[in-house]
Amino acid sequence: MELTKNPEKLKRRLSSVQLIVLFYLSAVIVSTILLSLPIAHKPNVELSFIDALFTAVSAISVTGLTVVSTADTFSAPGYFILAFILQFGGIGIMTLGTFIWILFGKKIGLKDRQLIMTDQNRSTFAGLVQLMRQILVIVIVIELIGAFILGIHFLKYFPTWQEAFLQGFFASVSATTNAGFDITGTSLVPFAHDYFVQFINMILLILGAIGFPVLIEVKEFLTQKGNYSYKFTLFTKLTTLTFFILIIVGALFIFLFDRNHFFADKTWHESVFYSLFQSISSRNGGLATMDVSEFSDPTLLFISGLMFIGASPSSVGGGIRTTTFAIMVLSIFFYAKGKDTVKVFGRELHPSDIHGSFIVITTAAFICMSSVILMTFLEPSFSIIEIVFEVSSAFGTTGLSMGITPALSTAGKFVIIALMFIGRIGIFSFLFLIRGNTVKDNFKYPKEKVIIG
Amino acid sequence: MELTKNPEKLKRRLSSVQLIVLFYLSAVIVSTILLSLPIAHKPNVELSFIDALFTAVSAISVTGLTVVSTADTFSAPGYFILAFILQFGGIGIMTLGTFIWILFGKKIGLKDRQLIMTDQNRSTFAGLVQLMRQILVIVIVIELIGAFILGIHFLKYFPTWQEAFLQGFFASVSATTNAGFDITGTSLVPFAHDYFVQFINMILLILGAIGFPVLIEVKEFLTQKGNYSYKFTLFTKLTTLTFFILIIVGALFIFLFDRNHFFADKTWHESVFYSLFQSISSRNGGLATMDVSEFSDPTLLFISGLMFIGASPSSVGGGIRTTTFAIMVLSIFFYAKGKDTVKVFGRELHPSDIHGSFIVITTAAFICMSSVILMTFLEPSFSIIEIVFEVSSAFGTTGLSMGITPALSTAGKFVIIALMFIGRIGIFSFLFLIRGNTVKDNFKYPKEKVIIG
Ligand SMILES: [K+]
Ligand SMILES: [K+]
């Protein structure tokens, strides 16, 4: 692509996806610089360039994989910088960026609306500014309530109210944005027997990962007046149902696979909380109430699959997304039944959505498989399960790890950085990166059937 | 489904896919009985039921995974029984069965033609009897030539010409049907430095796995008279190109991943033959000139991927098949380019073929992933790479193994049996099994788009 000195011209030459990616890249650079500032570190702590970059991408993509201990490396100002980056990454750079733009009184053009639309996966222009405002308000309200509840509760753990509320604030932001960063040093393991903290965290994790459109529809449903005829969209029904099925089925299988291992010496309530929390966390949060490497291989592979699926679209999460997975399952089922359409909740799925879902899933599987093979080649000292878990976690921007992240080679770190980045921008954006402004074919070839399968 | 005493009525009630599966199941039962006959065994050798069943399914599906040593367990008559089952499985029960039917002078009805059509994945009725005859003639001619060449060559290895030609005959049938069974006891390892034997085996493996329609078109092309206007079908172009790309790229990566391990002390010609042979074998043959567990993890994972892809459709092989893989790659590429059709070799792919390919791939991936998780649960003593390799090999009906097959638990053996069976009948047949005779929906719902990816 020929570079031009006129930025307006350049902007028009780039597709909106390419611009979004450019903005994310800029955010990564700024974050890397911010996290490298001496004021962000504890005294006498040095942070290498690759580790600052890794932390920046992990924060922007709200993954939560860490090559250095957040608690030991960063200072209190560092925590706030990190929380700010999480916020930025979680809500979506464009949404937040455009909101700041509005605050400064700029008018939003068609091109900018298109950018936000791409970033939030919306396919209509209508009410976009209002939508963004709602997202921001909802997220900040949730975070503040969470910070307040956790802060009050943490008074019993920490000597000063400042420290309790700093911990509560960071924990709430980290859970709501599903970032999975922790400043305790060991995720939520210290609260393995504090079911109240776990409960609050589960609520915050779910609210962050269930998707903004769902939150907005629920808000509209709850605040409607008079008649009770509110209609949820097919998207909200499909993604919410899938989301909760994954959580329940996830917890069930985690328990079943490890019944005679990890859960062998646990009480029923410990088992319920351990399996439920790790299931919810694998949707996208990445927080853990235990050392996940204590799980047996089938559980770890199963959780890898859950992380690969990831959160709902238009949420803070990554992965192939819940709707994509649901559409795949429904398509296979209806295909096997010999139906040529997929009908669900009294609606028909659009063929282009079905095709898109399969493109996303197969591309994602291909990327993750290749990454696993490449990583076993680059990191011969780690077991395959550790690598599969790490790769799924990075692509799903989940952030759970069996503990190998800090010991990765520089090449291995770059693979994980790339996966977190692709997981955040999504497979569509990744594919469209190579597209640019496409010219449609205006010629046809005869169709010919081939033998498949 | 209500059972009826009238077999004609029953036949009409069953879909052709269900009938095919019923025939395969019957063939498995007959094969299990044949392999359990005392005459089939070496003196004083006992074969348990589960091991006879495993061997029968492995032979019918021409997989070649073995729970007992073929060389040590079966007698010379046993070898011939096995070769007969391989032939039956390789060419497709329906094709061979119908041919025998013709020999006995029965007329072939519409329903039977439909069965063969399903078995060979053909979508037209035209010239079906002729097609079958051609398949059988081509395969037997190839096998006889192979047996003759190998038999002559083996005279220098074996004391009697009877033994040389028995070995040559079995090796040729096993290679052409891509069965991968061996009566040497150690696959082709004894010929690791006999490049002539390897070369003949590679040719036979390729001819068996490249697909009958391709062989027939090549035969038609070679035997045409006069004008040179023969047009290969899109199917033949697509599958053959994919087939050879997979072999070359496969050999290349096998070499690259293991350059500093297995190939570190090998000469250039050893490296070429080892990597090329194992790449060709992973298409479907399952023969090996070395102990594959000597390869490093990335190579083993990569070969697992190759086995998952498998052979061409309408060949002796299993897996998702080459065309399915090619259509996936092309679809992703054209989607990323923003095109709404997939154009290749001056033709457009049919949307239903594209949809079908994605159904096959995702269902297969789902089945294999679930099997791997289940197997790690059932077989805690084996490593994940051993299980991934075994599962891919069974689904691809390839038959390569890191050596765990004989040590599997009974539950583990049943999982592998199921995978070999599904691999042989194919994902389509597997899905259609649950269908029966479907009634099409005659109602419509409004279409609604959802957010994906
Ligand atoms: K996360
Ligand atoms: K085989």
UniProtKB/TrEMBL annotation, chains A, B:
Principal localisation: membrane
Keyword Zinc: no
Lineage top rank: taxon: Bacteria
Entries under Pfam families matching the protein: TrkH
Transmembrane segments: 20-40, 47-67, 79-104, 135-155, 195-218, 238-257, 318-336, 356-378, 414-434
Biological process terms in GO annotation: metal ion transport
Keyword ATP-binding: no
Subcellular location field: Cell membrane
InterPro entries named among the record's database cross-references: Cat_transpt
GO function term, MF aspect, one: monoatomic cation transmembrane transporter activity
Membrane topology, as annotated: Multi-pass membrane protein
Keywords: Cell membrane, Ion transport, Membrane, Transmembrane, Transmembrane helix, Transport
Gene Ontology CC, one term: plasma membrane
Protein name: Potassium uptake TrkH family protein
